[in-house]
Amino acid sequence: xxxxxxxxxxxxxxxxxxxxxxxxxxxxxxxxxxxxxxxxxxxxxxxxxxxxxxxxxxxxxxxxxxxxxxxxxxxxxxxxxxxxxxxxxxxxxxxxxxxxxxxxxxxxxxxxxxxxxxxxxxxxxxxxxxxxxxxxxxxxxxxxxxxxxxxxxxxxxxxxxxxxxxxxxxxxxxxxxxxxxxxxxxxxxxxxxxxxxxxxxxxxxxxxxxxxxxxxxxxxxxxxxxxxxxxxxxxxxxxxxxxxxxxxxxxxxxxxxxxxxxxxxxxxxxxxxxxxxxxxxxxxxxxxxxxxxxxxxxxxxxxxxxxxxxxxxxxxxxxxxxxxxxxxxxxxxxxxxxxxxxxxxxxxxxxxxx
Length: 354
Prior knowledge:
By secondary structure, this protein is mainly beta. The chain has helices at residues 14-20, 22-25; strands at 37-41, 50-55, 61-66, 70-75, 81-86, 95-99, 104-109, 114-119, 125-129, 145-146, 152-158, 163-170, 176-181, 189-194, 200-205, 209-214, 220-225, 232-237, 243-248, 253-259, 264-272, 278-282, 288-292, 297-302, 313-314, 318-323, 329-336, 339-346.
């Protein structure tokens, strides 16, 4: 992580604290930030700890999987509570996603490997598929993916001691479309992500490559592999599906961005810390990367670059991070003192002074 500038700006959330009342004002640190907007997320009834957070693809809706086994859903622009959904009956889902423009929420987990989808408007839930895993146990950190339209679900499983087995399901019928034990079970898969149109599935792997598959058939469509990089721990697409981000492991992590059509690198962000509590997330146009680093700094990098474009913004209680649909702002969900607060940071507001 680059050392913050000595004149790094510290912005108090005085207005937000006043709006949130005494609980917010009692937070012991300064949470330096310059937020254009602060929205408190308040559902009817109890507000519990956020175990998982998921934004819709356009960041218009955010869903919160609470520790009391309920799911609360909100509009991000206004904080309007859309619904509270009865939980699926399992804790710590392996997969949690908001799909179909925020009109649906999907969770997968539990001992039976159940995948449940809710209609946010009606609150009704249906089980997409259910499978007793036994030795086919999903690893806690080996997550799956849901296509933006909610029609496809990818799950990652233990393929013989390691998370190598990928399965793709039709969410409408609940039928498995295909499965693949990557590299014959000899190389872990660490990240999965559907392209925005749902037609391709990217898999980041232990052998330092990203393989892109046809989401309907499972046939490999492309392999993106750089020289001298570590395992790919996370993957993510730009909004137009033309660029793909791969987070490579190592003493210092690096985020490689690829042009998917040509198979050539579009740029790289280097010098990232090995541990990133949130992110990295690729901007809608694929030209910037945002992440929250271990020192709680929210920062943005141009692609390519070594130094952050922005002054790292220190915000505690981190739970979720997403780009706005226009790529001009970042939405940051934090939690403290039983408060869920959604902050909006415009990149230009925290740009480094030249």
